[in-house]
Amino acid sequence: MRRSLIALPLVLASALVLAGCTGGDEPTPDAxxxxxxxxxxxxxxxGDAVSAVDVAGDFGAAPTVTFDAGLEVTTTERAVxxxxxxxxxxxxxxxxxxxxxxxxxxxxxxxxxxxGDPATPFRADYxxxxxxxxxxxxxLGPGSRAVGVIPNAEGFGEQAETVGIGVxxxxxxxxxxxxxxxxxxxxxxxxxxxxxxxxxxxxxxPKTDLExxxxxxxxGDVVGVADSVTVNxxxxxxxxxxxxxxxxxxxxxxxxxxxxxxxxxxxxLVGQTVGSKVxxxxxxxxxxxSTEGHALQFSTLVFYIEILALNPDA
Length: 314
Fold this sequence. Notes:
Radius of gyration: 20 Å
Strand content: 25-35%
Oligomer: single chain
Order of helices and strands: HEEEEEEHEEEEEEEHEHEE
């Protein structure tokens, strides 16, 4: 199953755009260490380089992107091509994108527009994304299209060779923000008891993108991507309706690192508060789709999650 380069879990060495995800012995410079990170995530300027990139086509469909190779920038330049809704810094959105080497003109990846390609979840803040990608996406909500021209120092940094670019190359990042990931229709029904909840799925086709519903907001601390959490959860495969895992049934809440779980589960946790009860559905690519031979490799997953505690000393 093809999977977005940018959506790989934090725990994988090949995770790319997500900030700080080296997976190796050499540290990648934190995006906040670069000079450009003093610019607010929503305040990337325009410039000659980004003005030289032509993006044609309708929103929500793969665009035609043309530019002359040899683009040069020292900090990220952004142009908002289609004004959509506004998002808060760090708000979860899902987007389709095209990524190019602006130095050579080569296409690196196009993802999210084709049938079978789910949109990629992003949080536009320096803690979650490398700087240039965060600046391109900053404060853009559904209906927005933007292009960013990004120096590799604000892009992949020392991971450049992993994606087949030079450390001094420039990136061109074209993005359509498709949704805000709010699950508002065809919600499962959570029943049962507090000790043994049940999830009854609607008689509809599985969702194709990441969607999250907060059933009950807690009043505790906010969960971050670097935190350790304790949760109770119930996991169901949408296609079969069968429960495949449950900490409730095991009798013991689960404790783990937020950045150590599959992408869809992670994104359902980050930004929530302790005490919250959350439903999340995720397509295979954001679950176990890249795990060859996994029993749930091709399954759309639904999790009911109760966030019990943060573990700051873990």
